[in-house]
Specification:
The complex is a heterodimer of chains A (530) and B (715). By secondary structure, chain A is mostly helical. Chain A has a domain of 209 residues. Helices cover 70% and strands 4% of the residues of chain A. Chain A has 22 helices and 4 strands. In chain A, strand 1 and strand 2 form a beta hairpin. In chain A, helix 9 packs antiparallel against helix 11. Chain B is an all-alpha fold and 715 residues long. Chain B is built from 30 helices and 2 strands. A two-stranded antiparallel ribbon of chain B has the order 1-2. In chain B, helix 2 runs parallel beside helix 4 and helix 13 packs parallel to helix 18. The longest helix of chain B is centred in the C-terminal third of the chain and has 42 residues. The N and C termini of chain B lie far apart (80 Å). Classes of the chains: A mainly alpha (530), B mainly alpha (715).
Chain lengths: 530, 715
């Protein structure tokens, strides 16, 4: 049995209140209430779900006031409840700055997602909103949890509702996309489960593990992080691969990305918004929180490979995006390119690059989530995603066009919007480790401007077509959703200092694992520079 | 001004917010006042810039703290406001031209009915140019390279938005054939070409950070001056090369010049403000600002001089044969920017900055004058109001435009004593001195640039004679008009294919003008523009004439040298010549330059001022060269063929690879599993709900099982 004093040095909870559990489970409680037959009907279901997500957002904001940027504790707002004593399984949550930002992103994206489906989803309304709420609980759980067993449950909790959302409320080929999404990510999850179990037994082999003289669980993140350097190299390599398998699929990292375009194209708008807005971040977060700290030597060994794959994803993703004729597929492929920066930043492992990776995740959630919202708005009016059928939206829907412009520009990495901060930091951090890698990655600022502006020129500019003659401009819910994302993207772009405040207490495990080591195999390139 | 310096950029930003964010809710009768308000705000910035100028007139500089933007480890970026002598000049140029262009635009854009009535074109336009003025001011006020880069991109954004301002225009002729790039495509082309430069610029900034440990000018320049740099990556030449790549993109230098002529698809006030006076000179500003770095890399300076000289010749030769009034002025801009870079390359920084300032005035005036001509030509009902072949004799119809345009043309041609003469002569003279003192090879540059100034005088007065002199040609059929204008046979041949229908090419107020003229078919003579447009012309004519006298005589003793020598980073020293008075060499060069310019004008008069078929004969005789110039040295075609097509091919190939190989492998594995697991097929219902249910049940079972074990193990 763990004493409270054992964890005092590494985590605290200034609120003395299970605030994280509240945030995690508010959506689930909402889902349970929705399940009561006959309580809500039609519009009331939407309003209730929106109210739940707004409530969760507001409760989530309290974290910003309680969070101490200069805290000596690694994890804050921690909660620790014993669950299964025999296996040392605990319900253990706690957050640092990285989690904090991603929690805020999740609650915002969840609100916007409800608005994105406000008018477009008509069938099985109750089940649809239940799925979205469960999804939110799962996502928030992953961002908070510090126990691998509980982590796995939350991780799987995300997978099921998402697959169902694609499979039931999706487009024509939805079942194929849902099965592909489900099986693909399940394969990764199973690998990770094997890794988790292996870590558990490895911990037992080390003698059960002690934390400040007290026996402590084999699923606990703190414990395993402490154990990790003692595991032998082969074992660490395997653990790293097992975890990274799951996370690389989720990010998605080249060559595990082909489920993404299918899932996005088939998913309903809200599904795409959540998928791009928060789900992909589970992969990046997993790498940062679990894969690297729990197998530092493994991360070191595979860093060059991860960097190479990230570079391929960045450039290859951008080039493939260039040729897309389906608007939604175009935005989906651009995600492959943008999320490549997250992996690159993490495995370069310098302060700037990791800060950049985290901020790129937040920014990508806002911008690409917003872009998928924009795609959905056109689709709902035009009933096609074919770019050649579009044109002149600026004339029909000027407010929409204005907001679309900001999101598109943000996605090209334009300074003043959120995309620049993350991208540029990843570049800066990477450059200090290996200039050539940074130079290759930087090419994307040319290609991304090309594909996004070319798309924009054909969709929003140009003469309007007769088919769009009666298109209404943004309806109130669409306006509120998009304006929220745009305002956040602008705020983050022009005044990013608070975000750095939150991130100034980095998890040193990440840096000690990777700094200067991500370059071992690539160091030979450096002598090419005169 | 130290504490209020932030007002200078923030006032135009306010104009952007009022017109851009809230413009939609401004009632129709207050739209024009809103545009005037934006103008007034920029005007106030101009007044504050004058105050700032006097702050640093007697030397010194100041750096007002703004706020921190990025703080990641030792990578710190602040948004600050730094003013030294160079900044002060840039502030004056940007706010003065910015203010006048705002005013001019009220007249030029007021009747713009290009768009849907629900889309408020006027305020959208004003919001964009106010945003541009803000961004440009923040760019010159930066005290570090990242802030410079941030607003470097921001001015590029405004340029993109304003080039594509008329976003529905297709530029097709009666046969439905595209005859020129559409404004929206031109916007994309401008932005993407600039991004190629910015790719280099951003890498240059990273190189600076990792070698100097900071991106702040003061730290970087101090270290560069002391020579105490701990090189981690690359060397000074790499830094300068990468920064210069950015400058080449923004300032349309060879081989990244291709976007600027197409940028003329934007409204003409935009061409004056962004694509002549201010934004395109940002590259010159960058190289001048980073002088302490460039000074350490003599090789790079020679490269800058070469690129500048090549660009000067390239732009001038293409300008010789263009038939679109704005295209002629645009290629002239490219050419003059080339002069500025050549000047930087040879180390004549003062001359470069001086030419930047005078060029902003006379080229801004030329563009605004062109806009006035285009505006005035619209009532005539010609197919393309920008085609100089359908103009002629306009001096009688538009006297204010004519006289101011003539002054600007004289300045651009380099006729004594106008502003352009002094500044350009300084540049050419610097190469002569370098040839005498340093290396005889500099005489080659000197000769080339002198020949280019002959071409400059020629193409400027070709324009003046064709537009303002001779007989009016707008009532004639296009072919006849071209023949009468004395243009070559080849030009006549393509007259039909390049003429635009219904004046949609650059046609502000086309519909308004048509309505005013009482319907189709009826045409009127050109008219002079209203006061909002005429006043900026007259005001800009003043510096066009007098600004040159800032150079003083001898130049090195004049006010401009004295002022800029007070800057600590430009490295300007008052030379011996100042003490000894003007040398005979300086005087001879002045006379020679004047003769060259007058010769150019004389040739233009012989070919276009008098009735003559000389132009036609030359065009026929030297057809290959004529075609080379007319087709812009085939750069666009080369890039299309060598780069764009190949990138497309690569993208197509990778897409195929993605769909068939990578995804094929995924589906192949899935298929293999399905075949081998044939016995389980009955279990596979094919519905995802089924799978989901199975997993959910499995999880429930797993958790229950573990819980049972857990509880049974308690005691």
């Amino acid at each position: 049995m763990l004493t409270q004093s054992a964890t005092n040095v590494i985590e605290n909870n200034t609120f003395n209140f299970p605030i994280l559990s509240l945030i995690i489970f508010i959506p689930l409680i909402g889902a349970l209430v929705l399940m009561i037959p006959g309580l809500f009907k039609n519009q009331a279901i939407r309003v209730f779900t929106l109210a739940i997500t707004v409530l969760d957002f507001l409760v989530g904001l309290t974290l910003l006031f309680g969070f101490d940027s200069n805290s000596k504790y690694q994890m804050q707002f921690a909660e620790h409840i014993e669950w299964i004593h025999a296996f040392n399984v605990n319900y253990h949550v706690g957050i640092d700055g990285i989690s904090l930002l991603l929690i805020q992103l999740t609650t915002v994206i969840s609100m916007v997602a409800i608005l994105a489906g406000w008018s477009s989803v008509q069938k099985r309304l109750r089940e649809y909103h239940i799925m979205l709420l469960i999804l939110q609980t799962g996502t928030l759980g992953v961002f908070c949890v510090l126990d691998l067993f509980t982590f796995y449950i939350f991780w799987e909790l995300v997978l099921i509702p998402m697959a169902i959302i694609i499979g039931i409320w999706g487009s024509d080929n939805r079942v194929y996309a849902a099965v592909k999404f489900f099986l693909y990510t399940l394969v990764g999850s199973v690998l990770m489960l094997v890794g988790i179990i292996a870590l558990y037994f490895a911990h037992q082999n080390l003698g059960g593990g002690l934390l400040n003289g007290t026996p402590y669980g084999g699923f606990d993140w703190f414990v395993l992080k402490g154990d990790a350097p003692q595991f032998d190299r082969t074992f660490q390599d395997l653990i790293f691969l097992a975890f990274t398998g799951a996370f690389a699929i989720k990010v998605p990292l080249f060559p595990f990305h082909t489920w993404l375009p299918d899932a996005h194209v088939q998913a309903p708008t809200a599904g795409s918004v959540v998928l791009a807005g928060t789900l992909l971040k589970l992969g990046g977060y997993g790498l940062l929180r679990f894969a690297v700290p729990l197998a530092p030597q493994g991360a070191r060994d595979f860093a060059p490979l991860m960097i190479a794959l990230a570079l391929i994803a960045i450039i290859y993703g951008a080039l493939v995006t260039l040729m897309q004729t389906d608007l939604k597929k175009l935005v989906a492929y651009s995600s492959v390119s943008h999320m490549g920066f997250v992996v690159l930043g993490i495995f370069i492992g310098t302060q700037q690059s990791v800060d950049g990776a985290v901020l790129q995740m937040v920014s990508h959630g806002l911008l690409t989530g917003g872009l998928f919202f924009c795609v959905g708005i056109i689709y709902e009016r035009l009933h096609t995603r074919d770019i050649s059928a579009m044109g002149g939206m600026a004339m029909r829907m000027p407010i929409y066009a204005g907001l679309f412009t900001v999101l598109m520009l943000g996605s090209t990495g334009l300074p003043g919007l959120s995309g620049f901060i993350g991208e540029f930091l990843v570049f800066i951090g990477t450059f200090g480790t290996n200039p050539w890698v940074a130079a290759i990655a930087s090419v994307v600022i040319i290609i991304s401007a090309f594909y996004l502006m070319w798309m924009f020129q054909r969709v929003v500019w140009g003469p309007a077509k007769p088919s769009s003659a009666n298109f209404p401009d943004l309806r109130p819910w669409e306006g509120v959703g998009l304006v929220t994302l745009v305002l956040l993207a602008v705020a983050m772009g022009v005044y990013a200092a608070p975000l750095f405040n939150v991130l100034q207490q980095p998890d040193h495990a990440i840096f000690t694992a990777l700094t200067t080591n991500g370059t071992e195999l690539l160091a030979w390139m450096r002598h090419l520079l005169p | 001004m130290h504490d209020y310096i932030w007002l200078i950029p923030v006032l135009p930003l306010l104009g952007f917010i009022i017109n851009g964010v809230f413009g939609r809710w401004i009632p129709a009768n207050l739209k024009l006042p809103a545009a005037y308000l934006a103008t007034l705000l920029v005007g106030t910035s101009f007044a504050l810039s004058i105050a700032t100028f006097f702050d640093v007139l007697n030397g010194g500089s100041f750096d007002t703290q703004g706020y921190p933007l990025i703080q990641s480890g030792n990578f710190q970026v602040n948004i600050n406001f730094y003013v030294d002598q160079l900044t002060a000049i840039m502030l004056l140029v940007v706010t003065s031209v910015g203010f006048l262009v705002h005013l001019y635009s009220i007249g030029y854009m007021a009747h713009d009915t290009h768009e849907h009535p629900n889309d408020h074109g006027l305020l959208r336009f004003f919001s964009f140019i106010s945003l541009f003025v803000f961004s440009m001011l923040m760019l010159v006020l930066a005290d570090n390279f990242v802030q410079l880069y941030i607003f470097w991109e921001a001015v590029g954004l405004c340029s993109y938005l304003l080039i594509g301002f008329w976003y529905t225009t297709n530029n097709v002729n009666r046969e439905g054939k595209q005859f020129d790039i559409s404004p929206r495509a031109a916007g994309v082309k401008a932005f993407v070409t600039n991004r190629i430069g910015d790719f280099g610029f951003s890498l240059g900034v990273m190189l600076i950070f990792w070698n100097f440990g900071s991106v702040a000018y003061s730290t970087v320049f101090d270290q560069a001056a002391s020579g105490n740099i701990h090189w981690q990556f690359g060397n000074i030449t790499w830094i300068c090369f990468l920064l210069f790549l950015g400058a080449m993109g923004k300032s349309a230098q060879f081989p990244l010049h291709v976007w600027l002529p197409d940028a003329m698809q934007g409204p003409t006030p935009v061409s004056a403000l962004i694509h002549a006076a201010t934004m395109v000179t940002a590259g010159v500003y960058l190289v001048a600002r980073a002088h302490p770095l460039f000074a350490l890399s003599p090789n790079m300076l020679v490269a800058v001089a070469i690129i500048g000289t090549v660009t000067a010749i390239l732009g001038a030769t293409i300008a010789l044969v263009q038939n679109d009034i704005k295209k002629v002025v645009a290629y002239s801009t490219i050419s003059q920017l080339g002069y500025m870079f050549a000047s930087l390359g040879v180390g004549a920084i003062v001359a470069a900055i001086f030419h930047l300032a005078t060029h902003a005035m006379f080229k801004g005036l030329l563009f605004l004058g062109s806009g006035s001509v285009i505006h005035g030509m619209q009532p005539t009902g010609v197919e393309n109001p920008q085609d100089i072949r359908t103009m002629g004799g306009l001096r009688r119809y538009m006297p204010v435009t004519f006289w101011t345009f003539l002054l600007a043309a004289l300045a651009n041609a380099g006729i004594v004593p106008l502003a352009g003469f002094w500044s350009k002569d300084e540049i050419i003279g610097a190469f002569y001195s370098a040839g005498m003192d340093r290396n005889a090879a500099y005489f080659v540059f000197w000769a080339l640039l002198t020949f280019t100034s002959f071409l400059t005088a020629f193409y400027m007065f070709r324009l003046v004679f064709l537009v303002f002199f001779g007989e009016p040609r707008w009532k004639l059929a296009p072919a006849t008009a071209a023949a009468t204008s004395g243009l070559s046979v080849a030009a006549v041949a393509d007259a039909h294919s390049t003429a635009s229908p219904e004046g949609t090419h650059d046609a502000p107020g086309t519909q308004g003008a048509t309505a005013h003229d009482g319907g189709h078919g009826e045409t009127h003579d050109p008219h002079e523009s209203g006061w909002q447009m005429a006043l900026p012309l007259v005001v800009l004519a003043v510096p066009t004439v007098v600004l040159g006298f800032l150079i003083g005589w001898p130049p090195e003793a004049g006010p401009i040298y004295t002022f800029l020598s007070k800057s600590t980073t430009l490295g300007v020293k008052i030379s011996d010549e100042a003490a000894n008075g003007p040398t005979t060499q300086t005087s001879i060069l002045l006379v020679f330059a004047t003769i060259v310019a007058i010769a150019g004008i004389a040739l233009a008069y012989m070919m276009y001022g008098r009735r003559s078929n000389l132009a036609q004969r030359l065009g026929t005789q030297f057809k290959p060269i004529y075609n080379l110039f007319l087709n812009k040295w085939y750069f666009d075609d080369l890039y299309q063929w060598a780069i764009i097509n190949n990138v497309r091919r690569l993208g197509t190939a990778l897409w195929w690879f993605d769909a068939n190989i990578i995804d094929g492998a995924v589906n192949g594995v899935a298929g293999l599993v399905r075949v081998s697991g044939g016995g389980l097929r009955k279990v596979q219902t094919g519905f995802v709900q089924g799978y989901a249910l199975a997993i959910a049940l499995g999880l429930v079972v797993l958790i229950s099982y573990l819980s049972i074990i857990a509880f049974s193990n308690i005691h």
